[in-house]
Design goal:
Layout (H helix, E strand, L loop, with lengths): L3 H6 L6 H9 L18 E2 L4 E7 L2 E7 L1 E2 L8 E8 L7 E9 L6 E6 L7 E10 L2 E4 L3 E4 L9 E6 L10 H7 L6 E4 L14 H7 L12 H12 L2 H9 L2 E3 L10 E2 L2 E2 L4 H4 L2 H15 L16 E5 L3 E5 L13 H5 L7 H12 L9 H16 L4 E6 L11 H4 L2 H6 L2 H9 L15 H13 L4 E5 L5 E7 L5 E7 L18 H8 L3 E5 L3 E8 L3 E9 L9 E12 L2 E2 L3 E2 L1
Parallel strand pairs: 11-12, 12-13, 17-18, 18-19, 19-21
Antiparallel strand pairs: 1-4, 2-3, 3-7, 5-6, 5-8, 8-9, 8-10, 11-23, 14-15, 16-17, 20-21, 20-22, 23-24, 24-25, 25-26, 25-27
Helix pairs in contact: 3-6, 5-8, 11-15
Length: 569
């Protein structure tokens, strides 16, 4: 599987002479004259290019200049040029900016004045004393302003660098039919080389940088830089615009508004400082628009219309509104076996507290208004780019379903799930199951707006096709949960239970299909009449040689003001 030809197009090995030639062959636009002093030092583009947050008339374009002396206090003059053609001869727009040390030499431009539903190509040029230094080239696409052309989205999440190669990103980069890539979080992970994935990283030579758990702004910047140096990730970013939102690991594991499971103030400092550092680095290094003025730190929730087909709502469910974590491990630690059931019911009473929020009331109100506006304006589908599983999910009763030999074979996390599963309670309280009142409020808002809700979900490292129901049993939407880019799913921990997927589907009304194994992405195609999801897997992540196959497909269709339950194709 050679990637040479595609990387050549994306700008690897591009020369300064190429940019100079393109700049003189424009159609109706005169190139800007750059009278700024050249940067005296040496510089390179080591982290590729990226685009994101497409609107009908604009898109975010991103890159980063790497000065040879990272301690320089001088800014680097850069010109961004946008072209209409792949040969990059028809210049349509350009913008001058500076790569400044205050933003870690990253570049982010909201390029306006573009045409709807149009493919563009772009490249950055840094002005140095040695001449213009060019970035790789990228391809992007604006959103449609109207119409019913199909919308194709590649859905990904959970890309832990040490666990393996980013073959999933590589396969996505090969597609030329995408309107956007939707990354649902855990774009990077915070752990050090002695943490989650460290053993695999040591074996593959993919250890995290810096080697310790990231806490400070400098740490988070270095970790982003490491991920962005990966050529497969660079290729995927350069191939299509991305819609990104974070989950927990972009800050730290199981984070919420006022803290995190993996933050210890006594040794790691103030949580607000760490959260601010994580958010700042993310906004510097990712192709997303900065939060609107007046929002809380980290308020990156936003929406995008794709013609008359869909509105996509990118949610923020970690740092601005999420209530304090309730986790079974902490709650049941040290509880005597005969007292577990009583303790569990007391915990569930707290879980059901109506004051608990996943999004925060301000974002809940924003989403309710957005759903109403989307349906009023005739959009066929209302899509949630959401981090954690929305479906109601309880583990199958493994005490009954597993043989004695299978029960004994389970270790660690799975072993604790076996006796707990007999209680018939949700196991993952980090998901929407830990915020049932907030979920019902969301369903009520969708119902009031006559929304056809399509929820896209990451987090679990496993594949899901779910038909969502509210507490009364009414159908409220569907959910497609993507597996991971590299992070291990439940199937890698369960021993000798090959039908775990079937057991989960049979145990839950909301779950139509569950796949606990493998790595891949979900291709979601939306038309005015239906939504299909195709689940793709790569054959492995231990080497850069792989194959890809489609393992399942599902569909929902418009049905009057509503939609149908999922059907396997």
């Amino acid at each position: 599987m050679s990637r040479i030809s595609r990387r050549h197009f994306l700008g690897y090995g591009a020369g300064a002479a190429g940019m100079a030639a393109c700049a003189t062959e424009t159609t109706g636009n005169t190139p800007l004259t750059d009278n700024r002093p050249a940067f005296a030092g040496q510089a390179t583009f080591d982290h590729g290019v990226a685009s994101g947050d497409p609107l009908p008339d604009r898109v975010i374009l991103w890159s980063r200049v790497t000065p040879a002396d990272e301690k320089t206090t001088a800014s680097i003059p850069v010109t961004l040029r946008v072209y209409r053609d792949r040969a990059m001869q028809r210049l349509v727009s350009e913008q001058q900016m500076d790569a400044a040390p205050a933003r870690d030499f990253t570049l982010k431009a909201d390029m306006t004045g573009l045409e709807p539903a149009t493919v563009y190509y772009y490249q950055f040029a840094a002005k140095t004393a040695a001449g213009d230094i060019l970035s790789p080239a990228g391809r992007t696409k604006t959103a449609a302003a109207s119409g019913t052309a199909p919308v194709r989205l590649a859905i990904v999440s959970c890309s832990n660098f040490p666990f393996g190669y980013f073959n999933v990103y590589d396969d996505i980069a090969r597609r030329e039919d995408l309107d956007a890539v939707v990354h649902l979080g855990d774009y990077l992970y915070e752990y050090g080389v002695d943490g989650y994935g460290g053993t695999q990283g040591q074996a593959l030579g993919r250890n995290h940088e810096p080697p310790m758990e990231i806490i400070t702004l400098g740490d988070y910047r270095m970790r982003h830089a490491q991920y962005k140096r990966d050529p497969m990730l660079q290729a995927a970013h350069a191939a299509a615009p991305w819609l990104c939102t974070w989950d927990d690991h972009e800050s730290t594991n199981n984070s919420y508004r006022t803290g995190a499971e993996n933050h210890q103030p006594e040794t790691e400092g103030n949580w607000s400082d760490r959260k601010q550092a994580a958010v700042q680095a993310y906004l510097e290094w990712m192709p997303v628009r900065d939060p609107e003025a007046g929002r809380a730190l980290g308020g990156i929730y936003r929406q995008f219309d794709f013609g008359d087909v869909a509105t996509v709502f990118c949610l923020e469910s970690r740092l601005t509104g999420r209530s304090e974590e309730i986790a079974w491990g902490a709650e049941l630690a040290g509880v005597a076996e005969e007292d577990v059931a009583t303790k569990a019911q007391a915990v569930m009473a707290r879980v059901r507290d109506k004051s608990r929020t996943m999004l925060g009331r301000k974002q809940e109100d924003w989403l309710a208004a957005g759903l109403e506006s989307s349906t009023t304006n005739g959009k066929a589908w209302q899509v949630l780019a959401n981090q954690v599983i929305m479906a109601t999910v309880r583990p199958p009763n493994l005490m009954e379903e597993l043989t004695p030999e299978q029960r004994v074979a389970q270790k660690g996390y799975v072993a604790s799930m076996v006796p707990f599963s007999a209680l018939g309670l949700p196991f993952n309280l980090d998901a929407w199951d830990g915020f049932p009142a907030a979920r019902e409020r969301l369903y009520a808002a969708a119902s009031a707006a006559d929304a056809r809700l399509v929820t896209l979900t990451g987090d679990t490292h496993t594949g899901w096709a779910n038909t969502l129901h509210d507490a009364s049993g009414a159908l409220r939407g569907v959910e497609f949960g993507c597996t991971s880019v590299t992070s291990p799913g439940l199937g890698q921990y369960v021993k000798d239970v090959p039908d775990m997927g079937r057991l989960f589907a049979e145990a839950n009304t909301d779950v139509d299909w569950y796949d606990p194994d493998g790595h891949g992405y979900t291709l979601v195609t939306l038309t005015a009449d239906n939504v299909t999801s195709d689940f793709y897997k790569v054959s492995g992540i231990e080497t850069e040689v792989y194959t890809t196959r489609k393992v399942a497909s599902f569909e929902t269709r418009r049905d009057g003001k509503g939609m149908t339950a999922l059907k396997a194709l």
